[in-house]
Amino acid sequence: MRIVITGATGGIGFAVAEHFARQSHQVVLADLLPDRIERCVEQLRQQGFAAEGSVLDVTDADAIARCARDFPADVLVNNAGIQHVARLEDFPAEKWRLLLEVMLTGPAMLSKAMLPGMQQRGFGRIINIGSIHALVASPFKSAYVAAKHGLIGFSKVVALENASHNITINTICPAYVKTPLVEQQIAAQAKEHGISEQEVIDNIMLAPMPQKAFIDVAEIAASAAFLCSDAARHITAQTLVLDGGWTAR
């Protein structure tokens, strides 16, 4: 199968790409920066894996069309994400719109571009990488929380629209994953709250989580692979939550 992953040079994206590559699938690393794409593709190829790169800005309609034309996906993993932490009254309007474009409109438009091919082949899997913040909220993250909440609703609708085509659409929602994006959040939250970064980790990020641990990128990659397996062929319109018990309370 051909697996197209957006945001593929980051922590979660590359872990997903490497996991699928190890299962002998062809992976396409779609991301913004050509140099990073080239390095990551070469890293996989040196291990004997089938990997290609695609320069993709998920806010660019032409780039989306080009990616869908050049790399029609059997499996699409919508993973690209960004973050900005601020009170709403201090949140730049253009930054707010950008977060929605990258994490909600982008996945919708890329899915739209890939779906006709999936429908024609009678098979497709779309996996949206959500977040614990698709289910709960935190202060200072209005755009991120809005985008991730919207992603779940979007996934459910498209799953219903494609139920007769052997196409499933699901959302994986992990609690905090120790990636560069989260490292940036730790620093931003420390500044916003006037506390240390360790206090952010202990008292904000991991406080609601009974297991008190960051989610490992390998867990997300394995979950994505499971959703593509025969065992998951009737799992669609669902939200797979990796939260260490957070939302049980």
From TrEMBL:
SUPFAM superfamilies the UniProt entry points to: NAD(P)-binding Rossmann-fold domains
Q: Name one GO molecular function term.
A: 3-hydroxybutyrate dehydrogenase activity
Q: Which UniProt keywords apply?
A: Oxidoreductase
**Signal peptide as annotated in the record:** none
Alphabetized InterPro entries for the sequence: 3-OHbutyrate_DH, NAD(P)-bd_dom_sf, Sc_DH/Rdtase_CS, SDR, SDR_fam
Q: Could you say which enzyme class this protein belongs to?
A: oxidoreductase
Q: Which NCBIfam families match?
A: PHB_DH (TIGR01963), PRK12429.1 (NF009093)
Q: Which family does it belong to?
A: Belongs to the short-chain dehydrogenases/reductases (SDR) family.
**Annotated protein name in UniProt:** 3-hydroxybutyrate dehydrogenase
In its UniProt entry, the species of origin is given as Alkalimonas delamerensis
